[in-house]
Amino acid sequence: MNFPKRRNIQEDLRQKLVIVGSRNPIKISCTDAAFHQSFVGSFLVEGLNVSSDVSQQPFGDEETYQGAYNRAKNSKNVFPEADYWVGIEGGINRVDGEMEAYAWVVVMDKSGKVGKSKTSTFFLPKAIVELVDGGMELGEADDKVFDRNNSKQGNGAVGILTNGALDRKEYYQQAVVLALIPFIKSEHYPV
């Protein structure tokens, strides 16, 4: 006879620790909101300065994904006592002569399960593309073109270009929720 798996009530009630592989307040805030939106329970979300081990401005899906994966993995290596580790990495790519921007999200847990997702994409204006092509990181190019300061820790390109209709936190939060699907529906995503 198959009995239902006995749940550990104390484990369910314990506050879970989530480490984000960045000290960027937007990445920490969107992760916090996504975990609280996706699960019942209490989560403490903290940022940790770790390397992405990729270029300062990742180019293409492969490098951008690798940066997000490395941020989650390096966070786990530095702080293995946590329950979850999250990496978020913004990148750019060329499509038909234009430049698109997006981010990859990777979430890991103690069991070895990995969830991943990518944000929607949007295309950058020519003035920003020229600066990025000249070697400038996207956040710096945003600041220069739109006369801002440290926009990547604020609304970012997506917030600036949509006049705030979609801010960077909302943009990343949706992708974090999607990366949590293997944990939300864990019975369908065995390790």
TrEMBL record:
Family (UniProt): Belongs to the YjjX NTPase family.
UniProt GO molecular function: hydrolase activity
Cofactor: Mg(2+); Mn(2+)
Enzyme Commission (EC) number: 3.6.1.73
Family matches, as NCBIfam families: inosine/xanthosine triphosphatase, PRK05074.1
Matching Pfam families: NTPase_I-T
Segments forming domain Non-canonical purine NTP phosphatase/PRRC1: 21-184
Top-level taxon: Bacteria
Alphabetical keyword list: Hydrolase, Magnesium, Manganese, Metal-binding, Nucleotide metabolism, Nucleotide-binding
Coiled-coil parts of chain: none
Name used for this protein in its record: Probable inosine/xanthosine triphosphatase
Species, as recorded: Fontibacter flavus
Residues given in the record as substrate binding sites: E81, A82
